[in-house]
Automatic annotation (TrEMBL):
Protein name stated in the entry: Aldehyde dehydrogenase
Annotated Aldehyde dehydrogenase domain residues: 7-428
InterPro entries: Ald_DH/histidinol_DH, Ald_DH_C, Ald_DH_CS_CYS, Ald_DH_CS_GLU, Ald_DH_N, Aldehyde_DH_dom, Aldehyde_DH_NAD(P)
Coiled coil: none
PROSITE patterns found in the cross-reference section: ALDEHYDE_DEHYDR_CYS, ALDEHYDE_DEHYDR_GLU
Signal peptide: none
Taxonomy, superkingdom: Bacteria
Entry similarity comment: Belongs to the aldehyde dehydrogenase family.
Length: 459
């Protein structure tokens, strides 16, 4: 295998050759990538299923379908997105024509996690290529089948000096991070995000960090409880809870708790049957290490549903926990598995005490029909993004930027926001040589009052 050094230096030369600046070249490759992915559709379902038992349906709606839709969007809009944009000129620069030029950063590094192994590797890669960059992708070492397939797909479409996938774990990642990149896009845990930010700071490399956190789900007395339970069961146990924006825990108005738990139990059984282990729709935990980590969280808690752990098969049943303390393990870190703790509140102060116990979450969900309450929650708390009366679906609209705030991340992407992430906006003013007002030139005598008037009236 070529060394990381030699791959990066070949990508630097390729970028310098200006070939990636051609929009038609980018389109050729994006179309080739789309055909290659379409030809591998079944292989993608099989690889992800082998990695952690995810169903074809879930892989289609949360990975394959989204990747194809991002490709379609980029292919359709690329010419327009990448054109210089004319903006109104300012009286201060008159006479002029003012533009924003769309410039690729150059050599981009994308580091991907395992939980949506196809989507979270391919989507940033597509937008980085669309924006005119070269890319080195490091897919997750925990999804061996999917990462190999992604590597094959990339090798079949791109020359190495344009886009390449380098597989490996922490050592490879560390070596990649030691290089000088023009942009780093990282999706993963908060702790590794800090390592990435530190490595990037050595070269002042801009980064997007798509991280995680504890995303709350608040339910008040005006909510449609049965529908809320159904939607929350879907979003929490999708991908077996291994979703960065899954509702991590519930905060529900105290008198509603028992009825809500009954609805949750019914919906879990409706979705996955009496024994979810036998359901083809309920995935496994990614590996034994994570199964043990999640199982450990159950110790000493009041499990009111599920709680079954089969470590040898990396299975954890959809589980509900009643009122764990804020100091318990399950409330101390992002759960990232199929355990749903239910906390309760009486007053807004109770909600505040719980939410402010944690760092700013990636998502926040509010179930309510009281607009005043909804607006209060949306405006009081800082979080990456969210949904009112549902969960997860803000991920599905490419017009909305997707990203965290505080420790849940920095920067955002999806659709055109992704193209913009990998693009430097170069401010350009074009001037003619005919008019050249003398106002700005020395000597300044008798000019200050006039210039003050211009500032007052026109700025
Ligand atoms: P992770 O941070 O362990 O790994 C992510 C990537 O970083 C992998 O490619 C891995 O090889 C690499 N890596 C691991 N340790 C490293 C180190 N010490 N130095 C350099 N690189 C290293 O995360 P994960 O377990 O793959 O994913 C789970 C986490 O990702 C969760 O916290 C989840 O919330 C978060 N996540 C966030 C989003 C988002 O869009 N915000 C999406 C998915 C997952």
């Amino acid at each position: 295998m070529d060394s990381i050094n030699s791959i990066l230096s070949s990508q630097k030369s390729f970028f310098s050759s200006q070939k990636t600046k051609s929009v038609s070249t980018r389109l050729v490759y994006l179309k080739a990538l789309k055909s290659e992915i379409i030809s591998k559709e079944n292989a993608i379902y099989k690889a992800i299923n082998k990695d952690f038992g995810k169903s074809e349906f879930e892989t289609f709606i949360s990975e394959y379908g989204l990747v194809i839709s991002q490709l379609n969007l980029a292919i359709k809009n690329l010419k327009n997105w990448s054109k210089p944009k004319r903006v109104k000129s300012s009286i201060l620069t008159f006479p002029s024509k003012d533009y924003i030029y769309k410039e690729p950063y150059g050599n981009v590094l994308v580091i991907a996690p395992w939980n949506y192994p196809f989507l979270l590797a391919l989507e940033p890669l597509i937008m980085a290529v669309a924006a005119g960059n070269t890319v080195v992708l490091k897919p997750s070492e925990l999804t061996a089948h999917t990462s190999q397939l992604i590597t094959d797909i990339i090798e079949n479409v791109f020359p190495k000096e344009y886009v390449t996938s380098i597989q490996g774990g922490v050592e490879v990642s560390t070596e990649l991070l030691a290089q000088k990149w023009d942009y780093i896009f990282f999706t993963g845990s908060v702790s590794v995000g800090k390592i990435v930010a530190q490595a990037a700071s050595k070269h002042l490399t801009p980064v997007t960090l798509e991280l995680g956190g504890k995303s709350p789900c608040i339910i008040d007395e005006t909510a449609n409880l049965q529908l809320a339970a159904k939607r929350i069961v879907w979003g929490k146990f999708f991908n077996a809870g291994q979703t960065c924006i899954a509702p991590d825990y519930i905060i529900i108005k105290r008198p509603l708790k028992q009825e809500f738990i009954t609805f949750l139990k019914d919906e879990i059984t409706n979705f996955y049957g009496e024994n979810p282990k036998e359901s083809k729709d309920f995935p496994r935990i990614i590996n034994t290490k994570n199964t043990k980590r999640i199982a450990e969280m159950l110790k000493g808690t009041n499990v009111v549903f599920g709680g079954i752990v089969d470590e040898t098969n990396n299975y954890i049943a959809p589980t509900i926990i009643d009122e764990p303390s804020l100091q318990s393990d399950v409330m101390n870190e992002e759960i990232f598995g199929p355990i749903l703790p239910i906390l309760t509140y009486e007053t807004k102060e109770d909600i505040n005490r719980i939410i402010t116990n944690f760092e700013k979450p990636l998502s926040l969900y509010t179930f309510s029909n009281d607009n005043k309450f909804i607006e209060y929650i949306l405006k009081t708390y800082s979080f990456g993004g969210g949904v009112v009366n549902d969960v997860l679906i803000h991920f599905g609209n490419h017009k909305l930027p997707f990203g965290g705030v505080g420790t849940s991340g920095m920067g955002a992407y999806h659709g055109k926001h992704g193209f913009d992430t990998f693009t430097h906006n170069k401010a350009i003013i074009k001037r003619g040589n005919c008019l050249d007002p003398s106002l700005r030139y020395a000597p300044y005598k008798n000019k200050l009052n006039f210039i003050k008037k211009i500032f007052k009236y026109f700025t």
